[in-house]
Structure formats: C-alpha cells, structure tokens
Amino acid sequence: MGNSSSMLTQYDIEEVQEHCNNTFSQQEIVSLYQRFCQLDRNGGGFISADEFMTVPEFAVNPLSQRLLRMLDGLNFKEFVLFLSAFSSRASLQLKVEFIFKVYDSDGNGKVSFNDVLDILRDLTGQFIAEHQREHVLTQVLEEAGYTKDSLLVPADFMKILGSSDLKMEVEVPVD
Known about the structure:
- The chain has 175 residues and is mostly helical.
- The protein is built from 10 helices and no strands.
- It starts with 9 loop residues before the first helix and ends in a 14-residue tail after the last helix.
C-alpha cells in the first residue's frame, strides 16, 4: 500500500478506514489513494516535504512550514490520518488536537505565549505591528482565563475552542 503501481484491496481500504476512525468513506479513501499516488512522484510509498510543496494551495499557505513538520515522510495510512481532521465526520476533539499540534511547534505538549505569537506572525506578516499582535493575544488569553505565562495543554485548547463552531472541512472528490 502506498506504491503508485499497487492497488488498494478491500482489506487495505477497511484497514485505513479503521485507522482514521471512519472519518472517510471507502470511496473517499480510494480517491485519497489516487491523490497520494500522484504526490508520491518517486513511487516509494511515502510523501516528502518537497512533494507536498508541489500542491499550489499548500505551498502558499502561511502555515506550510509548520504543517510540513507534521507531514514529511508520511505513508498512505498516515496521510489519511493527517487529513482526517479535515473530514466533516471528524469530532471536535480530533480537530482541536490537530490545531494544538500545529501550535505546539517544539512538540513538548505545551503551547506558550510565544508559540501562539509565532503563528500570528506567520498568519499576519507585516500587516500588524508586533506590539498589536502581543496586545491582542494577551487580551484573548485573559478573556479565556489565562496569562502570558500560561502554558496551554490540549485540554486548554478544548476549553477555548470547544464551544466554537469550528469549521475545518475539505471535500474529497469521488469519481
């Protein structure tokens, strides 16, 4: 599974579907496999950071470098699991955990004020002054009951984002 020349068996499809907690239908998994094979240009069964950067929408994403840290070297099952956070069937918990991983740049299980500030810099570039970013972030944290010195864990992200109508959905075209 994962090599461009191989085909998915029914067993493979069911295994991937189980691995991603049924966030994708079997038809969607087949479509994702076709896309995976297109991206896996050398047919090695893994997608490299360079191969991901060939997707124009990904290449222009201001968070692409952070996402590459999560993506480089994925096999097909891991690719589908990564994308499962964007499925309409994904739970809020799964979506929040994904967002947390994006913010947790050093992978220590905690998100600091500076981690969030780095994301804001990536997203806003030169359009907002540094002191404005810091002020807005400080206000948002204080409104949520945290301070600049707080280290947020996944449960904190769930508390902050759990009551929102979080939309992170990508439609998977099926043939």
